[in-house]
Amino acid sequence: MQIPVWVIVIVAIVAVALVLLLIRFFVSARRRHLLNQQIEARREDSVSYAFVINPSKPNAAKVTQQILDFCRERDIDDPMIIETQLDKDGAACAREALKRGADVVVAAGGDGTVRTAASALAGTDHAFGIIPIGTANLFARNMDIPLNDVRAALQVAVSHGSRRVDMGRLAVLDSDEPEHRHGFLIIAGVGFDAQMIDETDPNLKKNLGWVAYFFGGVKHLLGKKNKADITIEQADGNTSTIRNVAFRTFMAGNCGQIPGFSLMPEADYGDGLLDFELMDTNGGLIGWASLFGDVVHQTVTRKPGQNPLSLNSTIEQMQGSRAELVLSRPTLAEVDGDILGETKHIELTVDRRALLVRVPTEPDLSATATIPPIKI
């Protein structure tokens, strides 16, 4: 049966009309997208930025000038530059920035400056940016923030790409400090990891970077073990307690990645949980070699647990919202590489999605070069 010509004509007209409607829809969507970008540009011009800088870093003065140059090029008016001091840490600087009206606080320094500034921003809606100029820059690595490129890190800090992350807290319960809930973004620990950090030579750190920490730990490889009663509130809501357990180090992780290795493969900085890890060794250096093999194994498999061939070492992991340790003797504790001193009683908790961090976003591949920026 032959289709009448008039039917073909009508079908063709309908098809053309549909194509034209689709084209109009996509053009309108494109215009809305460009308009939103222009609105964001207007908003960006009105945002007030504060930069918390650790002046003890070797390149701090150069970084400060790069920040000022970048802000001038981007028409960011009156950026605040607030330097940390011996009696004024990143948290105090960040609080000062907020009092002075900053919308976004950016920390330029190492993990210590980042964690203290972040502690003051946690629980607010103020965005937090990072310019990593420290030794390890562990949190910046976990957030995929560019390293060794100040301008690239600044570009991320003034972008609108943000992510909510958890903030860990370590409370020293046998301390008289009024502010004893120390924030951490990466790892807090008690035992060998704190001893290793405490023994690391600052000059060696400047020359060798994060590798210097391994030299700091050599002195304590054959040291006395720690013992504690450990109570953990697990992810399923149940509570478990182990009594008088011996260990080399106990850590709580918000992020589990360090350069080259994965200490806690399942650690997720946005799940409202901490990953607790208990490590122990026996048999001297053989036990430490076995423990190193355990870490390599979980780095390769991306799963927590021991190497099947492991000897003389223990690595146990559990997720939870809280842990409490009552130690048999005073033991060093640390948060994100900062030593807190000796303690016999600590509590580890997490503030879920408390911090809004500026992070890299996927590049926009659309052709926007023809639309001039709007200045107000």
Summarize the structure.
The chain is α+β, with helices and mostly antiparallel strands and 376 residues long. The chain has helices spanning 5-46, 60-73, 90-99, 111-121, 138-142, 150-157, 192-199, 202-208, 212-217, 285-301; strands spanning 49-53, 80-83, 104-109, 127-132, 162-172, 181-184, 187-191, 226-234, 239-247, 249-253, 257-258, 261-262, 274-281, 313-335, 338-358.
- Main sheet record: 13 strands, mixed
DSSP strand (E) fraction?
25-35%
Q: What CATH first level of the largest domain would be assigned? A: Mainly Beta
Instruction: Find the count of extended strands (DSSP E, 2+ residues).
Output: 15
Q: Low-confidence segments, ≥5 residues, pLDDT <50?
A: 363-376
Helix content: 25-40%
Secondary-structure arrangement, i.e. CATH architecture of the largest domain:
Sandwich
- How far apart are the termini? 67 Å
What is the N-to-C succession of helices and strands?
HEHEHEHEHHEEEHHHEEEEEEHEE
Count of structural domains: 2
Oligomer kind: single chain
Output the keywords.
376 residues, alpha+beta, Rossmann fold, Tumour Suppressor Smad4, 2 domains, two-stranded antiparallel sheet
